[in-house]
């Protein structure tokens, strides 16, 4: 047996002077083998927690090299005889893992195992033998990974910053909040709308029922499903398809983002849905759910790994819900299946995701157009819509992704995704709503189809020139979307009704409607982008510069003949960005950015002297400054921003031009974390001064934007009870200020405050971990209106009191 390795003490200073591999070789020569690796990244006196999940990117190769890199990244000490690893190879490890599972993956197929002796210290031994070694200690720590949960578990430390990849929130000069799977499960969220209730900067236009959700961020609409991302790809989500039980994170990026995401239409921000991936450990989790009044559901989450080195993974999420919700006459049957696959072979990593969803609903949330000042909101739990209204949809999605390591510091990556949506609406809407609650009802049936495919290819790498570090990223992105829609009015035998005493009528005679309509529009968005983050003064000053060139093409078609209608659109634009982050101290970061968003340019309307003229894509320009404070257990962010969005106006010569503007100046504050071992908090507040600054003949200059509250705030907490072990009490308060529903600010809907409470209890059942959750939203049954940004007179009913109950079991 080789001599035991003597005691070794490593510090961050020593690490800087001697590369880990050099240290390994020196120790092997000096002592005949024993210490495989020891690394340090900071002066912390503790190694990483062994059960926390961290991100790894260690390629396949000689086992000694792989273990050396692992030890350098984690600060974990590995001890073994030298001949134990000679001649052995490792398959490497990538993705999120605990230390134990990462070591298991590194050693798979080698005939070795790692046995923990003390915190931060492991010894290697043959699977069927025990090798006794003297204790070895090392001082080390590691920087936190961006996607790892922050203290309290409700948000991640960071999230995807578009083409820049995953970044720690405290190290990026942009504003992003990533809500975790833990939050989604504990809050019993069903849709994306349920999750963003935690974010004051992001608002849902209508109450969340799963029948379609549209969001606004920083007072501007996200632009619909095309502007929202799925695993970083635009065009892969749909607002009628937003179940979240199968998501790992919901990432809200606040602010203009053309350079980063390549989307068009996402003026004030975008939402990225991160799907669940195969885990390193096996998981079988079953959830049973109940929602008032009688909606029940089941959810299964199963993850497994296969192969000699467990290089193959699969994760399946299945969801089924059926029954009536707290909205009277609102019934839903949902079938949802998601399969995620993963393979890791040497330098190549591939993954695939397949989704299928089918939703059939009756009722729905009725919209109204107010004729005058809106009346008081009716009882939200009572039906106004007709019981025969229907919303049916089917959604398919497939995505493939691949990464290949060209070298240690350079990675090629590519992705392709395709979606197919088919939907049918049979619904009513209310027009000419007056102060007494009277309205006229119209009925409509509509069928729509949409398909999209997105391709991305890019390269990322990092290098150093002199004392300046560089993180370079370049990509090509193409999204193609086709849509078809056909609609028909339905004769209504009783068009008059009242929101307080609604009139219900039998289902009218409905003629057949083509369920697979012709293509009525198509669009292609292509872009090429490059960005570099330069690090100065040991990366305490980070400067990001980049530019994206986008080409936007679109055509419309006659729904009957299929012929091209109007003038095809084909324009391009270049959007630069520059951002700076300064680490003023180990806990405080200061940042600023200039970045733009892009929208398809308008067409001069009929009746103007330049009727039919196509305008280039419109650029919304953003300037933002802020600060971020990381106290370890609690994080704070603050940001001041200005967004200036152009709009079209007609001048005195009857010429249409894009000379109008709506400007939003705002302040965002957020706090999150675990200030006390028994207390977790999550809160934010957003103030927006929304002004129309350049309007037709200046008649509306200085007026507030429609549907933009000047103040939104949310505060949530979780408290672990001392009196009852394993019991957690929860609560949340949401405040929304009044919102104008007329361009001249003559009418508005009042402010409202919503309260929610809940509890969860962890226990054992037959030796299995079981969690019981219960919650109530809109606890006091507040009746209120909501509205849609930029749509004068449009009103939606809010969400009534709703109760949720679930039981989760790991088997």
From TrEMBL:
Coarse class of the protein's main subcellular location: membrane
SMART domains for the chain: STN
Membrane topology: Multi-pass membrane protein
Pfam families assigned to the protein according to its UniProt record, in alphabetical order: Plug, STN, TonB_dep_Rec_b-barrel
Keyword Disulfide bond: no
Membrane listed as a keyword: yes
Domain (Secretin/TonB short N-terminal) ranges: 76-127
Source species: Oxalicibacterium flavum
TM ranges: none
Gene Ontology CC terms: cell outer membrane
Gene3D superfamilies: 3.55.50.30, TonB-dependent receptor, beta-barrel domain (2.40.170.20), TonB-dependent receptor, plug domain (2.170.130.10)
Keyword set, alphabetical order: Cell outer membrane, Ion transport, Iron, Iron transport, Membrane, Receptor, TonB box, Transmembrane, Transmembrane beta strand, Transport
Alphabetized PANTHER family for the sequence: FCUA PROTEIN (PTHR32552:SF82), FERRICHROME IRON RECEPTOR-RELATED (PTHR32552)
Protein name per the record: TonB-dependent receptor
InterPro entries linked to this entry: Beta-barrel_TonB, Beta-barrel_TonB_sf, Plug_dom, Plug_dom_sf, Secretin/TonB_short_N, TonB-dep_rcpt-like, TonB_sidphr_rcpt
GO biological process entries: siderophore transport
Residue ranges of coiled coil: none
Protein localization: Cell outer membrane
MF (Gene Ontology): siderophore uptake transmembrane transporter activity; signaling receptor activity
Family named by the database record: Belongs to the TonB-dependent receptor family.
